[in-house]
């Protein structure tokens, strides 16, 4: 029967650590009152970038006209996360 070695107190001392190790967590300065940070989703369609899914889907349909004719049309509502 094989016995696994016990975890050492310095669990992060694996051989891969000599490649630079983990980065420290990024801490951002607190924002002043009245400033809010938000995340924005960008949709890339070919060389174009959109923040509106409906616009991205319209560009997708323009770039793939055969998709409309073959009935494999994708609706923006089906792409949104519930």
Question: What share of the residues lie within helices?
Answer: 10-25%
Structural class: alpha+beta
Mean pLDDT over the residues: 76
Report Rg.
Answer: 24 Å
Distance between the termini: 49 Å
Q: How many strands, which pairing sense, and closed or not: the largest β-sheet?
A: 2 strands, antiparallel
**Which oligomeric state applies?**
single chain
Task: Give start-end ranges of low-pLDDT stretches.
Answer: none
Q: How much strand? A: 5-15%
Please provide the ordered H/E string of secondary-structure elements: EEHHH
Overall morphology: flat
Helix count, per DSSP?
Answer: 3
Q: For the largest beta sheet, what order do the strands appear in spatially?
A: 1-2
